[in-house]
Amino acid sequence: MEKNYMHSSAIVEFEFLEEQNIAPHDHENPEILFVLEGRLHVKTDQQEYDLGSEDFLLINANRSHSYSTKRKLLAVRFQISMTKLREMLHRNSILFWCCSVLEKSKSCEDMQRLLKDILFCNINKSSKDAFYVISLHYQLLSLLCGKFLLDDKRDGSDFPKEKDHMSKVLDYVRSNYQNRISLQEVADELYLSPTYLSKYIRKNSGKGFVDLLNSVRLSHVMEDLMYTDIPVIKIAMKNGFASVAALNKVFKETYQATPSVYRKNKKKNKDDKEFREKAAAYLHKHRKQEERKQIENENFLSLSQDHVQPMKLTCLMNTGQASDLAKAFTQNQILYCKRKLGIKYIRFWNIFEESMRLDHALGPGKFHYGRLDEILDFLVKQHLYPYIELRSKPRRLLRTANNIFHESGQQEEFANRKEQKEFFDDFFAHLLRRYNRNIVKHWVFSYSIETDTKFEDYSFIGKLISEERWDAYLEEFDIVAGSLKKRFPEARIGGAGFPAQHYSQDHIKKFFDCWRQHLYQPDFISVTSFPYHIMQEGGVWYEQRRTDFDFVKEDVETVRTAMKDAGFGDRKLHLTECNLTLSDRSYINDSVIRAAFIASTAAQIFDKVELFGVWNALDPYSEFSDTAAYLFGGNGILTKTGIAKPVSFVLEFLSHLYKEMAEEKDGYLITSNGYKHYKLLVHHLVPMDTAYYLKEEDQIPALGIEQMIKTNERKMIHVRIDDIPKGCWQIRRYCLNQESGSILNEWSNLDMDTELRMEELNYLEKVCPRMFIRKQNIDRNVLEFDIELEPNEVQYLHITEFN
Known about the structure:
Largest sheet: 8 strands, parallel, barrel
CATH class of the domain at 314-585: Alpha Beta
Keywords: DNA-binding, Glycosidase, Hydrolase, Transcription, Transcription regulation
CATH topology of the domain at 314-585: TIM Barrel
Shape: elongated
GO molecular function: DNA-binding transcription factor activity; hydrolase activity, acting on glycosyl bonds; sequence-specific DNA binding
CATH architecture of the domain at 314-585: Alpha-Beta Barrel
Number of strands: 31
Number of helices: 24
Oligomer: single chain
Distance between the termini: 71 Å
Protein name: Helix-turn-helix domain-containing protein
Family: Belongs to the glycosyl hydrolase 39 family.
Organism: Candidatus Anaerostipes excrementavium
């Protein structure tokens, strides 16, 4: 049964329509019936309406109406507080004319958009969104009163004069329902006879005077039942009933239960999760479609020969713990990334993990390298280059940057420097015996400093690198690097793998200045970058989220400047880990937003970073007991069955770019082979709205994440390339967006099933960017064309002469 009550402080409340057929009835408050999917047939005392998708109809207060549907329906009923309307308009008689079926206008379009916004914000809101939701409610009142409120003249044309008495009856009843009023009393007030008034009320409301009075009283009873803890006996007395028995009789006739039972049942919180999920799915596909037709300011793109540089950026694959590489699934995904993404460097860690059977405490001649050799043999046979982290790295699964729910992979450190030197002397000697120098010279060895963040009892603990800890690290690095360099001077080893976002340029320079004083300096510097700043407040450490999507560029520039100032300017820089979130349960990891972010980041750092790793490669690294859903917000570039996420396609695009000449313009990457052939990577990265940062990263639903962006406007880019030889040129374009290449979108089309059949998995494997080819004849040595991008779309273009 529909809800016929509102909280006294509410402006607008909504509920989903559940029943397919509702008999004639009326309400104390105006209501808007809004259909998302399906059809709803509505009958009022004056007319019948057939509502389809995104149609709405306003039913005025106390107007009898019924509705029915024959199909599956997704519709919403918005109640609008008549009390608030009267307070603001200073009038008792308030009538609206508002129906999208009979009137197509800009005001109706504004109403449709506003109803969807209210619905979206209520479905996705947190307590911090409350003010914004209230502002939308007031916008609704403003739109209704400004565009759809009937004046006195229109009142007469749309509603008969004979109903003027009815509004006066209702006004009197609403003002005096708490008292014991009679038909005679109302008749005297209107100067009518009781007999005439009784017939008049029944004719115009379909019910007798007593039933009308009780319906008004019941609406206030329901408000007290649902929103207060007032005893039923007091509710009865407060709202004009002579006794609890009288209230029970009337209430049971209407709601088939006594007030006490009804309150108990309703406070179990009826679950409308299914309706909310369906509404979220609908809004995901259709919300603000008209806004997307708008175009942002154009950007003009051309390649300048004066600022081109070689393309330095090469992607590495963060595969996981060493033991993971022994698994057939992981090896298959590595081969996929080699074949599709052009990956050559495979980064892994925790070579001392228990299942590897490599115990560094046993002493020379007793170390068991068998399992590690199997992994290295596989990589060597596939012509891949190991990127070996020589220090242990804990496996942490995070809901948010400050909330951990699992940690493993912690290994014992070396007992002393002697034990450490003995192991690495033996380890590097073993590698050089087993693999020749021409192979090992391509490998990368990294010795990182101990992580500067800890979790104790699942609580975040900051542990920034102190001077003492840095000095100890440099002594350890001298031992490890010395063991390698004495045997193979050409080998590459570096560090320190610290999170760049946690340290200022001065701090980093001090670190590097100390390093310059040591015997062995790094062949490269490695860092990570994530959108947080480490903070301490009241003795409590926490990671504060950064809202700027240029954070990687800022971190890289900070490190690069510190390197130059410390005399490390000629060293390579490896960005081994970066992502839009540290969370292992954020659907932004599965979205096109992440893809556009990586495209933008790659363009910003293409000439500053040699090796670039997205965190992480495979969703199984993030799996735990709560990952029954096929997509669960894991931070892999591939799903748990190895299907490409949108970010994976961006890495594929990057692998296809020319290396000879490259230039970044306005966040886009233009490359050329020097023979007037071009490859472009363009995007329309849209920052997240404030609502995204007000919610915890793991609390945003799958279909809500891509709606939390600042704008839905498209972007137009005008491309102009000069000095093009005359003739026919071909432009091959690959478009990655929500409709083409988004596994999150396609999974939602499969009803986000937890268990997918092989047929459905085979379908998802075919999800990919859409390709377009067109030819253009050049007769003025200038090639010009436009690129239109929707929010967070990425496009890869290949421009070649067509012979």
